[in-house]
Structure formats: structure tokens, C-alpha cells
Amino acid sequence: MDDIAIQADRLGKRYRKKWALRDCTLQIPAGRIAALVGPNGAGKSTLLHLAVGLLRPDEGEVRVFGAVPRDNTALLADIGFVAQDTPLYKDFTGADLITFGARLNRRFDTALARERLAQLRIPLDQAVGTLSGGQRAQVALTLAIAKRPKVLLLDEPVASLDPLSRREFLQALMGGVAESGTTVVLSSHLLADLERICDYLIVLQTAHVQLAGPVDELLEAHRVLIGPRGAGTPGEVIRESHTDRQSTLLVRSGAEVVPPQWTVQDVSLEDLVLAYLANAGAGRAAQLERAA
């Protein structure tokens, strides 16, 4: 199982009667930078909290490099986690946090942490609560990377940052994991940012996995078709829109031959994600209508 970083098998978590995640089955190969996308309430944070062992599943299981993370101190040494609000002891200085991290983590690279913060011009002697949001996010990322984890889980780490701070954060992330081969799972709504750095995609909607796989393979398997309304459609239609005379379809196709009346266009990552989210949302609305 060394080639699989995270594996979920019919994983589920509920809060009272509402399922935050249900029947989640997926595999994230080791060494990937995976984008975890979906609307608010889709289960992204729940999945990450289950993978890091902060939550106990109500159904199924999740394994990290073949081991269950919950109450597994040996495995937790291999997992880095940056939560959505980048929680830090705000009265601690950067130097304090580095010392604290070194005492808690046996592989903590103090020299790396100090060097990264120096490169980012983040003062070590200043309380992190007085730093900007972008600087605090960089401190949290630095502490996570200095842990030398095999898996790095990031829950909306750039949601509150301005565009320049987001770019600097993502550049720092890429630099930090490029040589180590660390598997990264990055939750975010910002598809343009994800498209630049991620090579694996997981789409969550209504507590279920809608799509998962390598980005290049998923893009290759989908096409946008534009043609006369009512023409025969090659492949599975994921999303469609129509005028009186013309149809625009996003389809998942295999070896089907596209009839000549269709104009074929490549699909972007944003188009792909939005199509699956809209498709899942329409399906959920139809279920609720039938149940009413």
C-alpha cells in the first residue's frame, strides 16, 4: 500500500441526523498534489479531519499509508495539517513556535523552518498574532513542512488571503514539497489556483465523491460539444445547455466517434468541476422533489 497515500472505503461521518460525508470511497496515490473541491458543506473539512485522525468515522474507514490515523501517534508523525483558520498561539513568536514544533516532532527540521521564514522576511522575534494574514498562513505552512511529513493536508489555507499572498503561499508550498515527494491534499474554492499546481482532482458534492482521478486523464476523457439541437450524442452527458437551434454539451466520452455535425472543444478544469457540481446539485434537487 506504499503507493497509496490515502484510502477511504465507504467512509461516513454524521453530526446528529445529518451526514457530512457518506459512502466516500477513493484512493489518492502517493506523491500527488490533490485538489479537493466542492461547495460549502460538501464534506471537505470532514474528510481532512478524518484523515488526520481528529474525527472518528461513523461508517467505513480511512487509512493513511495503510494505517488508521485515529489514536495512532506513530502515524501522526507522518501527517502535516494546516486547518482552515491557520490556528497558532498568537502570543508566541516565530522562534517560540519553531522551538515548540521541534519538541513535539522528532523529525522537525529547525534549520529549514528558520531558513524559510527568513526567506519570506517574517521576523522570528515578533508575536504571530501581530503578523498579517498572509504571514500567519506562511508560518503555519512552514511549521507543517518542517515536520517533514509524508502527507500534508491543507484545509482552505488561502481562503482569506489577497491574490499576491495566495500566489506567494502556493509558490512556497510547491518549493517546500518539490524535493521531498510529499503527498499534498489541498482544499480550496479557488479553481484557477488549483489548476496551476494540482495533478489530482477530487470533487465532493452533497457529502459524496462525484469525481476523482488524475487531472490530465480526466480532462482527456471529457469534451465540450457544440452542435444542432437534437443531434445524436456520443458519450455520457454531464452538463447541457440549449438554445432553440443549438446544444452545448459537456460529455464524458470513450472511443466513440464524434459525428461531423458536432464541434469539439477541450474542457478546462473549471468547466469540468462546475459541470459535475451542477449535475450533482440537479440530481439532489430531483430527489428532494420526488420525496416531497
TrEMBL record:
Keyword ATP-binding: yes
GO molecular function: ATP binding
Signal peptide span: none
One matching Pfam family: ABC_tran
Gene3D superfamilies listed in its UniProt record: P-loop containing nucleotide triphosphate hydrolases (3.40.50.300)
Positions in coiled-coil regions: none
Domain ABC transporter per the UniProt entry, residue ranges: 6-231
Keyword annotations: ATP-binding, Nucleotide-binding, Transport
PROSITE patterns for this protein: ABC_TRANSPORTER_2
Entry annotated with the keyword Oxidoreductase: no
InterPro entries tied to this protein: AAA+_ATPase (IPR003593), ABC_transporter-like_ATP-bd (IPR003439), ABC_Transporter_VariousFunc (IPR051782), P-loop_NTPase (IPR027417)
This protein's name: ABC transporter ATP-binding protein
Source organism per UniProt: Dactylosporangium darangshiense
